[in-house]
Amino acid sequence: MKLTSLIPLPAGWDSGDLVVFLAAIAALTSVVAVWFAFVDRDPLAARARQLKAQRVQLRGQLTGARRRPAPTSLGLGFMRGVIDRLNLMKSRHAEQIAGRLAQAGIRSKDAVVVYLFAKLCLPLSMAIAAGVWFFVIQAAGKMTPTQLVVPIAAVIFGMLAPDILVKNAIIKRRKALLLGIPDTLDLLVICVEAGLSLDAALNRVAGEIGPSCPELADELSLTSLDLGFQPDRRTALENLVQRTDMPQIRSVVNTLLQSEKFGTPLAQSLRILSNEYRNERMLKAEEKAARLPATLTVPMVLFILPSLFIVLLTPAVLRTIDGMKGF
Questions:
Q1: Torsion on CA atoms 14, 17, 23, 25, rounded to nearest 10
Q2: CB burial string 11-32: b at 16+ within 10 A, e below
Q3: 234 partner at 20 to 30 Å CA-CA among 24, 178, 258, 306?
Q4: φ, ψ of residue 106 in degrees (nearest 5)
Q5: How far is CA 172 from the centre of its chain?
């Protein structure tokens, strides 16, 4: 089956034009990827400015008079108008969506609005784009069952794309947080033994681990800010658990709460947790290393061994053929 039978082309296009168009898109994508790879970014600069603005805003809400909210952009205003008209912000899923976005590191006040608007309009826009492609650009009178799969798949992709992006962001962020927990606990033990309070220790540790693990530094900075404004420490620490939803951080928070409640030595408990998580990380690395020979068996049989046999046996075969020419 030809590719042009599955993907309808505009009038005057053939398969060669399609290949040139896809090659141009691939080249542009490669140039953009290389450009962003060489751009030097500070991962904590933007988040530090955001935390500072949030601290000033919370302090103003507690001590100052109420101010008129800042005007939003035209696009966000339109999105908010659509979501408010459909009454989606008051649904029971809005709070769950906000929690999942927070787990992905997206804590903007307009993130839920943008997510709901994308969830609502993306399938519709994909359906309209497929209809324009088939009935306007291609000007097709009838659609074959094979061609009908393309707009249906586009609509399904539009429905699932926001959830897939958020889920991938959550998984990536959790992996980064898990890698930075043992070193963070070691630094936290040093700060606690030096006599720093919990919020001061979190601030100091966040500044130290920022270059190596900006995700965990972000969470610790926000927790330190939350400790300064919440009347109860339990609330601020439980907010950290809700933002991450990881059993390792839940164990650290439970250790902090039990140490505050029963007066147990905090430094010793954190040191035990640090050794446990570091041993767990080492066991996972050893497990991956032990699984590596079995994983490499299939690529070795399919790709490495045939090339090796060709390199080793080809000279002997050629000499044999040359020697048999005299008979």
A1: -100
A2: eeeeeeeeeeeeeeeeeeeeee
A3: 178
A4: -105, 105
A5: 5
Residue 258: CB partners within 8 Å, gap ≥ 6? 264, 269
Half-sphere exposure at residue 110, Cβ-oriented, CA atoms within 13 angstroms: 13
Question: Cα(177)–Cα(222) distance, rounded to whole angstroms?
Answer: 14
- What is the signed CA dihedral for 35, 37, 40, 43, rounded to 10 degrees? 130
Q: What is the three-class DSSP state of 315? A: helix
Q: In whole numbers, what is the pLDDT of the chain averaged over residues?
A: 79
CA atoms within 13 A on the CB side of 156: 6
Q: Which two tokens stand for residue 144?
A: 């074959």
Locate tokens 């068996």: which residue?
A: 297
Tell me how far apart the alpha carbons of residues 313 and 304 are, in angstroms, rounded to a whole number: 14
pLDDT of residue 40: 53
Q: For the full predicted model, state whether its pTM sits above 0.85.
A: no
| Residue 161 to residue 282: CA distance in whole angstroms | 35
Contact 241, 249 (CB under 8 A): yes
**Residue position matching structure tokens 């912000």:** 89
- Which is nearest to 215 in space by CA: 189, 188, 184, 185? 184
Whole-number Å distance between alpha carbons of 205 and 221: 9
Burial 225-256 (b: 16+ CB within 10 A, else e): bbbeeeeebeebbbbbbebbebebbbbbbebb
Q: What's the pLDDT score for residue 300?
A: 84
> Which residues of the chain, if any, have pLDDT below 70?
1-12, 15, 37-74, 134-147, 326-327
The Cα 147–Cα 5 span in angstroms is 8
